[in-house]
Amino acid sequence: MPTSRKGDGDLSPVAISAAGLRKSFGDKLVLDGIDLRVPAGSVFALLGPNGAGKTTAVKILSTLITADSGELRVGGHDVAVDPQAVRAAIGVTGQFSAVDGLITGEENMLLMADLHHLSKREGRRVAAQLLERFDLVDAARKPAQSYSGGMKRRLDLAMTLVGNPRIIFLDEPTTGLDPRSRHNMWGIIRELVSDGVTVFLTTQYLEEADELADRIAVLSDGKIAAQGTADELKRLIPGGHVRLRFSDPAAYRTAADVLREVTRDDEALSLSIPSDGSQRELRAILDWLDSTGIEADELTVHTPDLDDVFFALTGPANLPKQPEENVR
């Protein structure tokens, strides 16, 4: 399997890679030469508005449709040359459940075991194990159409795991779920990754990407607008600041007079200092407060969240070009 450099001298396997991926439908260019590298055993989140091409990327990487051009490898296999080997290495859970509502949850699992050519004994063992893991034992012999939305999504993912894939594509897996069911699904995804599974996730829930993803790419107009960790992406957006609040009006006035480029709130006795929220800048502010003998009663760091990143990168306004290390 190819490797990716995480840090100096540190090479880790790459589970999924795409270079120059392009796809058009008629005269509509959906993916315009995107590049992605997903280290094994990590969660990679692909964000973008409706119609950005997220599902198209998943379908291409999981061999459901073909790319117009690009070099694509999944699980060490060339997607164009050996799609069957790719299919054997992956599991896919789409936006819409593949569960058959007319049969029971257990029967859905056994059907999937048959498709993976497991023996009846092995199929029953794997089905029972996964139904227990996903807390579906009590409902196993009930028609799947009677399941709640969260139960159907858990069953769908359990069916995906019958073949023990090491790479899983989850295309908006929590769409339509209530907050509790969504958090339950997050826990399942974390367990999978702790077992060494690689998860390629598309989602419109920015909190979901922030909670789960080791790396995030933002797709806009068929291109990757930015890529990096959640913290790296947040630092691309202006508006971060450190807020100092004072209870002593004299200390507040002294600090306001000495500091430059601050926003004052005379009523709240607070000052906002532009900052990217980095440890270096925070240490500089604390050192300055110590050197001047000024004591703030409260210091809070405010950084842009992924909502800010999403709207800035997918809206009409373009950000300045991000640093080279975040583009790769």
From TrEMBL:
Quick one: where is this thing mainly located?
Answer: membrane
- Is Methyltransferase included in the keywords of this UniProt record? no
What highest taxon heads this organism's lineage? Answer: Bacteria
Q: Which Gene3D superfamilies match?
A: P-loop containing nucleotide triphosphate hydrolases
Recorded hits in InterPro entries, A to Z, give:
AAA+_ATPase (IPR003593), ABC_transporter-like_ATP-bd (IPR003439), ABC_transporter-like_CS (IPR017871), ABC_transporter_ATP-binding (IPR050763), DrrA (IPR005894), P-loop_NTPase (IPR027417)
Q: Does the keyword GTP-binding apply?
A: no
Q: Where in the cell is it found?
A: Cell membrane
What topology does it adopt in the membrane? Peripheral membrane protein
| One function term, GO molecular function aspect | ATP binding
Q: Which UniProt keywords apply?
A: Antibiotic resistance, ATP-binding, Cell membrane, Membrane, Nucleotide-binding, Translocase, Transport
Q: Where is the ABC transporter domain?
A: 16-246
Similarity-based family: Belongs to the ABC transporter superfamily. Drug exporter-1 (DrugE1) (TC 3.A.1.105) family.
In terms of NCBIfam families, this protein maps to:
drrA
The identity of this protein, by name, is ATP-binding cassette domain-containing protein
Whose protein is this, by species?
Streptomyces iconiensis
